[in-house]
Please model this.
Amino acid sequence: MLVPLAGAVALAVLLGVAAFVIFNRDHDCSGGKLALRVVATPDIQPALNKIAGNYNKAMHSIDSKCVEVTVAKEAAARTANGLAAGKINADFWVADSSLLLEGIRKTQGGQGLPEVEGSIATSPVVLAAAKSAAAKLADSLQPSWVNMIAAANVANVEGPGRKVRVLALDPQKNSAGLAALLAAAGSAKEAGQDKALVGALKELSGQMASDSTALLASLTVKSGSKVPIGVTSEQAIYAHNAKKPEAPVVALYPKEGTLSLDYPVTVLTKDASVLKAATDFKQDLATESAKKTLREAGFRSSDGKAGDALSKDKGFVPEVPQALEPPDGATVARMVQTWSRLNLGTRLLTLLDVSGTMALPVPGTNMTRMQAINKIATEGLGLFPAGSEMGLWTFSTHLNGQNKDWKELVSVGPLSESIDGALRKELLAKTFSQIEAKPTGDTGLNDTVKAAYTELTKSYQEDKINTLLILTDGAGNDDPDGGVKNAAILQFLKKTYNPKRPISILLIAFGPEAEQGKQQMDALAKATGGEAYIAKNVLQVRDFFLQGMERRLCSPNCDG
Model:
């Protein structure tokens, strides 16, 4: 009986030795520790930190060293800027969106960025509203990107914006904000709402929250009679509600579909051993255990699968939302540039025609041309934000002395600046309302354009869109004293215009004779990369000003 027992003991000892050898071969830390520095966006960092803790406890060995993963949090835009500048202190990066990476690749510093190595989670970008306001919102705005654009369009004063206030996330700092902007732009273009998009972008630029946390908190703050809605990721809403706030928020899924944050992995290290560690940790992130941890934090798996955190009773739609076609890198880069240009300040000098024909009545209305033009100016200039710089000249013949066809009424400067006890904005409104036509005055347009364009060129400001706005009932230049001829003013503008310091002419004409001067109007505007419009009625001016804003985005290459 002892022989078999001795054999069994020997076998057990051998098996134990084998197990010990195998265990230590896979968990050999005799060479010390091998650090793997991970940087991740703040929303996913806590979940990754939990996964990394379990990974470290399992003692993963690379070249006789146990891998020790640390996970730091940093906004993706900041990490991206560091990469572009060649300053990054990480081996492994988990951004929140491939859209951000595509945008970086189009920059000079981002051309050498390593390729993305898969996605570890997703979170759809959705609309959001306070749960208490959701029922009220359902009566005024069905969740869709096109409806969001309509509500935010600054020029659509009779639209859903009367009942809804839209909040945005800065697309230059927040990937959810960029994804929402791209989804809205694509949907608006599909619906033929390009001009509405420009009006919405202009309004949203002044309704931005710094991050999702601030935006979601703002949704629960009363804003008069308007219901606030915003855009954020599904996971951000889960995280907000998980803190059990007094006013929870619900997710509203756009009917057109949406884009999702996809949390791409980018391996940054070039060290051979650290590269092995990065590969091993990336494989661990693909395990069911890691996926479960991410789903418990409100994320979906890379295939869109939701966990219990995104259940229907918590206000979410567990099914995978319809996906919009992801834009390519060039589209992302253009949108970022569009946003940047749209948010440049405005510096605008308005030239108002006060020649005798402006006193004539407008058929079918009880207004003179001057009154109609003043209404146009008030409508259009009201679209510009308070930080804009504006001024006003009038023009006709012999308006300010025998040989001067223009007169400065309000100098160009900030609308919020005080002039003799009144804000420039108030002074402009008052001045417009009091201007009358000069009964015996002729147009004198060309001399005025030359003087105004020269003035704007001398005082050009790099951080603003510099524009010369002309409001008239026609582009004729019937100066009896001669003055600058049509050919000469075109030659002057072509010679003076500098595409590196562009000053564009936006010309809006209103009146039955306007069509006769359309050719000269077009020539004046095109010489500076601008545009000329003829208004058939006062309401058209909103579209014209939006079209003018739209051209700001492509200047100086709007026509090819």
Observations:
- The CA atoms of residues 18 and 440 lie 110 Å apart.
